[in-house]
């Protein structure tokens, strides 16, 4: 009987040891699963955050490029408008100058005889007198 009690006690100790080891293994397996799942979730979150950041950076770059294009288009439009204004002003000035030149040309034709006469009179006056100066 002592022998059977001893054997059963040994069997119980062995079975308790085996059970303890199997629970540790189950716990480590569940811990590993939980860790890998959390790591995967964290990696997915980090990747999604990185993707969001790159998307927002690309959007900002696109917005900056659009703003720059709009500004250059506005500058070009204002430059074209200014050129048109200058061109129209220049045409108006040219027309005024042409009118003035034509009126001067007409008046020059009318006064042409008078100029020759005054020049001849001035030449005669110059030859009559002795110039001023010291002796």
Shape assignment: rod-shaped
Q: Note the gap between the termini.
A: 175 Å
Low-confidence stretches: none
Which range best describes the helical content: under 10%, 10-25%, 25-40%, 40-55%, 55-70% or over 70%? Answer: over 70%
* Global Rg: 55 Å
Described by its quaternary structure, the protein is single chain
Strand count, sense and closure of the main sheet? none
Q: Please tally the β strands and state the result.
A: 0
Separate helix tally: 1
Overall mean pLDDT score? 77
Order of helices and strands: H
Report the structural category. Answer: mainly alpha
Please state roughly what percent of the residues sit in beta strands, choosing from under 5%, 5-15%, 15-25%, 25-35%, 35-45% or over 45%: under 5%
How would you describe this structure to a colleague?
It is rod-shaped, with a radius of gyration of 55 Å. It is built from 1 helix and no strands. The longest helix has 127 residues. It starts with a helix and ends in a 7-residue tail after the last helix. It is 94% helix and 0% strand. It has a domain of 53 residues. The chain has 135 residues and is an all-alpha fold.
Q: What would you say about this model in short?
A:
The chain has 135 residues and is an all-alpha fold. 94% of the residues lie in helices and 0% in strands.
